[in-house]
Design brief:
about 725 residues, alpha/beta, Rossmann fold, 13 strands, elongated
């Protein structure tokens, strides 16, 4: 006979808002430290493998494909100014010198140099192994050699120096030295040819210039002799003196005429001074009166008066001073006034100019009287100028002859200097500073490159594999994975039994049997949020649904029941797993009568409940007899009646069901219960499955409270290992020292 407590009226569950639409699944975030701790041994092994691969790569390349590098260095010079200048002195500006070096670096790999190199008959003899790679139909193909040398030959102008470096790498040391040597010689030969051609052009130009100067000198000297002969240079001084005396007598006669002009000139000067005064001419009053009576002035003043009348009319009509029409009219009035003043000044200037013109005509009449005398003076002066010009022409010819002689001497010096520079070694501006030698060490492979290369390649591939694996891994491993599922709330985590230092014996009853274990503390921590959520909503019945078989939902049910019972909460555990019931075994009770019999109405709820064996443990409504376990009854009205009776008699009813993946029993019961939680096992269920089950549980009558992750391991939680260790250490009783 059952000893269940007296029934209480059920508390109706409050209505909940419909679930929000589901957004897209989030992309998982990866913690590098967490990944390193998880895969540290794999990465360590990959590191050793990578080092081994690098060493093997180095040995293989050294044995089968070594690279020897030969190098030649050229030194550049500034343009050679003269044969006596100091070699190597950079006289040109730095920009010009660097441009020259960059240009020569391009010239070395130009088609002209490469053609000369590839067709050099010494190439097949001195670099037979290298040229053998460019044979077609048994014959050497220079075009293939040119294409190869363009790719393999390295030429660079060393910045901030006078050097150009040319180098090349190949498998045979003797051949690579021979190829670089022939390239060096081909470049220098092309450079000497180009430099000699430019020097020849300069010398030819100088020779032509000297010849032109010689012809010009002959012409000037002949012109001077002809001018002396035509002008009878011996009598030039006498003719100059006679003409000068006659001119002085004529100028005496002109003086009298000039005196007569002084008066009129003085008057005219006064008028012109007044006209050119900086302050403007001071016109006479009678002239101003005549201008004011001019008809043009009268018409302008009439227009102004009309504008002023219009302005007064606007003001009388109430237009203010800032009105647009008033402002525009005032501007027109100001402009008209300025125009009137300008017109007055123009008329005054015209009439004053007429007065001046009259004075000038009077002056011209007097000046005409001395015209004849001035003409005679000009004739005598022209004779003097002619004699002076002849003398100046002779002096100018002497100066031109001197300049031609000086210019010819300078061009001759330039020609001599250029011929001397051509004989210098630095006339091409580029000389060999360091010749190529047969290399005695390999340029590649080198151990400090191949070993890191192998290490990076192997560790990089392993790291990429880890990254892809983690991104593609959809399994629930820890709390961060639940956060990636939209609208999925994490209620708590239960550590794996292997993580508990106390050594869990039976996980289904760990709260009862090992109260100081880490797992027990996990269930206690889970009890607090569940209690708050259930009490806030007035829920009594809680269905616990596992995702996949083995998720540990049954152990969560029993341990939560023990945890709530230990807090003096009356708990009833209902075994609704008709497929694989186990609660009666865990709690040491009978399999029937139980839930199946109550749903079949073959027994009453009170008689089917099996009371706890001792205080602090939950009561049990076991699964019932096998004959009455009909799955459809779990979603029938009878199930609601059972839950109502249980909720009335107990503070909390915890229901265990079959996993959601293998049966719909849990969803059917969730449509009858008050609340539901989903239990998933770490490293087992995937996020897609959890998201689907969350959606299905959210669509039921029961309020979906969240997800519990069971069997969480420290490798999946990052900091979880420290939390477990701290919890275990804190549970140990302290000993007195």
């Amino acid at each position: 006979m059952s000893t269940a407590p007296a029934p209480r009226p059920p508390v109706p569950a409050p209505s909940r808002p419909a679930p929000a639409p589901q957004p897209g699944m989030a992309i998982p975030t990866l913690d590098p430290i967490k990944l390193f701790r998880k895969y540290q041994w794999i990465l360590l092994i990959a590191s050793f493998v990578g080092i081994g691969v690098g060493i093997a790569l180095h040995v293989g390349l050294l044995r089968f494909y070594p690279t020897f590098r030969a190098t030649a260095i050229f030194q550049c010079y500034a343009p050679q100014v003269s044969a006596g200048s100091v070699e190597g002195a950079i006289r040109a500006d730095r920009d010009e010198f660097e441009r020259f070096m960059a240009t020569q670096a391009l010239v070395i790999k130009s088609d002209v140099v490469l053609q000369r190199f590839a067709n050099d008959p010494r190439l097949e003899r001195e670099a037979p192994n290298w040229t053998r790679t460019f044979y077609e139909n048994g014959r050497y193909n220079p075009s293939l050699a040119i294409e190869s040398i363009k790719k393999t030959l390295k030429v660079r102008a060393v910045s901030g120096s006078q050097f150009i470096e040319m180098s090349m790498g190949w498998r045979k040391r003797e051949d690579v030295a021979a190829v670089v040597g022939l390239m060096r010689q081909s470049y220098l030969e092309v450079l000497r040819t180009q430099t000699g051609s430019e020097s020849t052009k300069k010398k030819d130009s100088l020779v032509r210039t000297i010849q032109d100067l010689d012809r010009e000198l002959t012409r000037l000297q002949g012109s001077k002799r002809q001018l002396i002969a035509d002008s009878r240079i011996d009598s030039l001084d006498q003719r100059f003196n006679e003409t000068q005396n006659a001119l002085q007598q004529l100028q005496t006669k002109v003086v009298q005429v000039r005196l007569d002009l002084e008066s009129i000139r003085t008057t005219l000067a006064n008028y012109e001074q007044e006209l050119n005064s900086p302050a403007g001419p001071n016109y006479p009053d009678e002239l101003r009166a005549q201008v004011d009576m001019d008809p043009v002035m009268n018409n302008a003043r009439s227009v102004l008066n009309n504008m002023e009348s219009q302005l007064k009319a606007l003001q009388q009509n109430g237009y203010g001073p800032m009105h647009r029409e008033v402002t525009l009219l005032r501007a027109q009035i100001d402009g008209q006034k300025a125009q009137i003043e300008q017109l007055r000044q123009s008329i005054l200037a015209d009439r004053f100019a007429a007065i001046i013109d009259g004075a000038r005509r009077a002056k011209a009449g007097l000046e005409a009287q001395q015209l004849d005398s001035d003409t005679q003076v000009q004739q005598f002066q022209a004779r003097l100028v002619e004699i002076t010009n002849i003398q100046a022409q002779i002096r100018d010819l002497d100066q031109q002859i001197e300049r031609v002689i000086t210019s010819r001497s300078a061009r001759q010096d330039e020609l001599s200097n250029l011929q001397a520079v051509d004989r210098l070694e630095t006339n091409t501006r580029v000389v060999t500073y360091q010749t190529e030698t047969v290399p005695d060490q390999v340029a590649f492979p080198v151990i400090y490159i191949t070993v890191p290369l192998g290490y990076i390649a192997v560790v990089g591939m392993v790291g990429l594999w880890i990254l892809v694996r983690e991104i593609l891994d959809q399994r629930i491993k820890g709390p961060s994975d639940i956060a990636l599922i939209p609208r999925a709330k994490l209620l708590g985590m239960i550590a794996a039994t292997s993580e508990d230092p106390s050594g869990v014996k039976a996980v289904e009853t760990v709260v009862r049997d090992q109260p100081t274990s880490v797992l027990t503390e996990n269930f206690r921590q889970l009890r607090a949020p569940l209690t708050k959520r259930l009490q806030a909503s007035g829920h009594r019945s809680l269905v616990v649904i596992g995702g996949m078989p083995g998720s540990g939902a049954t152990s969560v049910v029993t341990n939560l029941a023990f945890a709530f019972s230990g807090a003096e909460i009356r708990v009833l555990v209902v075994d609704a797993n008709f497929r694989r019931p186990s609660l009666h075994k865990i709690l040491g009770k009978n399999e029937g009568p139980g839930l199946a019999d109550v749903l079949a109405r073959s027994t009453s709820f009170e008689s089917a409940v099996q009371p706890a064996s001792k205080p602090g443990e939950p009561d049990l409504l076991s699964v019932g007899t096998a004959a009455n376990r009909i799955f459809e009854r779990l979603g029938a009205k009878a199930m609601s009646e059972v839950l109502e009776q249980a909720s009335a008699a107990y503070d909390m009813v915890i229901i265990d069901t079959a996993p959601a993946v293998v049966s719909g029993d849990g969803l059917a019961i969730a449509n009858r219960a008050d609340a539901s939680i989903l239990v998933v096992k770490a490293l087992s269920e995937k996020r897609g499955l959890v998201a689907r089950l969350r959606n299905e549980l959210s669509d039921t009558r029961a309020e979906f409270l969240g997800v519990i992750i069971n069997g969480v391991r420290s490798s999946a939680g990052g900091y979880f290992r420290r939390n477990i260790r701290a919890t275990a250490d804190y549970q140990r009783p302290q000993t007195n020292a």
